[in-house]
């Protein structure tokens, strides 16, 4: 393939733009905020799960407390009725009064036991409420950190995308000035050779594979016409000759 030396040199400009686009794409996917957000979101999920568990416990103990207080109230009301009957003693035999006294005493003990249960449940509910308050604060704190990291990531991505858009426009202009067949070869090699399709021959060294050309290769390059498209024997990339090639 033949192409004017100026067109070949423009490949270096095109390569620089493509390299920058590759760098920007890599930078976009490896922003430190990505890992930071992933870590924070994992923490947030864990804290939310703990919060849900604490809220469930608080809700359960609230129902348990209500039930225990109702049991106490029922026993209290029954004891009050029995005590009233005992105080009046109307129409009751001595044995009935004795039995009623025992029942009142039993109800008093039962009421005391149930009140202890209420106190125990209240303590557990208070502990659950404190846990809910603590975890709510943690969730809010981690969420704030997530929001901050997301804002920083979005700002960084927007900046990268803006530069990438500018570089892409510039690439369109440069690529339009390169002959179609030369551009096709360059793009094919760039895709095959890890993003580099054309490399400068600098002081007898290919800047694509970083290997120095041997004497035979140098002689072949020296003998090539200025408009001949030369390829590196080692990496197959287009070798662009300049005044610094060392020929």
From TrEMBL:
Entry coiled-coil feature ranges: 97-145
Domain called C4-type zinc ribbon: residue spans: 205-239
Keyword line: Coiled coil
Report the residue ranges that make up the CT398-like coiled coil hairpin domain in this protein: 14-194
Q: Which domain of life is it from?
A: Bacteria
Cross-referenced PANTHER family: PHOSPHOLIPASE C-BETA-2-RELATED, SCAVENGER RECEPTOR CLASS A MEMBER 3
Please identify the protein, giving its name as recorded: Zinc ribbon domain-containing protein
């Amino acid at each position: 393939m033949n192409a004017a030396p100026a067109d070949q040199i423009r490949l270096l400009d095109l390569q620089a733009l493509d390299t920058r686009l590759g760098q920007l794409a890599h930078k976009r996917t490896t922003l430190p905020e990505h890992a930071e957000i992933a870590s924070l979101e994992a923490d947030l999920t864990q804290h939310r799960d703990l919060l849900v568990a604490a809220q469930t416990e608080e809700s359960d103990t609230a129902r348990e407390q209500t039930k225990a207080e109702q049991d106490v109230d029922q026993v209290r009301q029954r004891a009050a009725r029995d005590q009233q009957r005992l105080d009046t003693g109307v129409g009751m035999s001595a044995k009935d009064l004795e039995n009623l006294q025992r029942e009142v005493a039993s109800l008093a003990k039962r009421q005391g036991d149930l009140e202890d249960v209420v106190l125990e449940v209240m303590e557990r509910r208070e502990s659950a409420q404190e846990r809910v308050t603590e975890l709510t604060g943690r969730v809010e704190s981690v969420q704030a950190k997530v929001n901050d990291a997301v804002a920083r990531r979005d700002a960084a991505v927007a900046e990268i995308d803006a530069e990438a858009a500018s570089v892409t426009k510039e690439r369109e202009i440069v690529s339009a000035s390169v002959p179609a067949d030369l551009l096709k070869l360059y793009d094919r090699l760039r895709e095959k050779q890890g993003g580099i399709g054309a490399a400068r021959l600098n002081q007898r060294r290919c800047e694509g594979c970083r290997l120095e050309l041997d004497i035979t290769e140098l002689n072949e390059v020296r003998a090539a016409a200025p408009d001949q498209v030369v390829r590196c024997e080692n990496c197959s990339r287009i070798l662009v000759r300049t005044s610094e090639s060392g020929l």
